[in-house]
Amino acid sequence: MKILRSMVWSVAFMVAGFSSAMAGGFGDLVLAFPITEEMTGEEIDEAIMSQSIEQEINHVFFAPLYKQVEAITGESYRHMTIHHLCDARLGAQIADLDESMVVMMPCRVAVVESKDQPGKFTLYTTNPMVVLEDPSVSEEIKQLILGFAPKLKALTENVAAGEF
To answer: Residue 80 falls within a domain, yes or no?
Structure first.
């Protein structure tokens, strides 16, 4: 009976945690950079591509999700894009140390127009420092991520400030 009760409580906590994550409760996992300059979504996308060159990060993929939503629904949708950025050398080094860590690389930047304030944009990206808190991550991988984090920070901060 104690085991069953323990399992029920565990499932309840997992569901509650999932619900809070779905509601935007990502805490330290996600970094947000509000755009402080007046720019269009397209200008922000261009700025990310420009800053990726400046920061020596490969811009490997661009997904204009809002266009996909419009194509599926037939209705206009606010600007929402995803940029996949990667330092190929870093990716290879991480894969050589631990292949499963490749999915934890901080490589994605999303541009999202506010649904409540049209024309206001925020950049969202994974916080690379979260991986550093995991005791199972090797020191070598932590050092690689610490070396990459300033590039991602510079890119997002520069774009948010309208520099490109």
So the answer is: yes
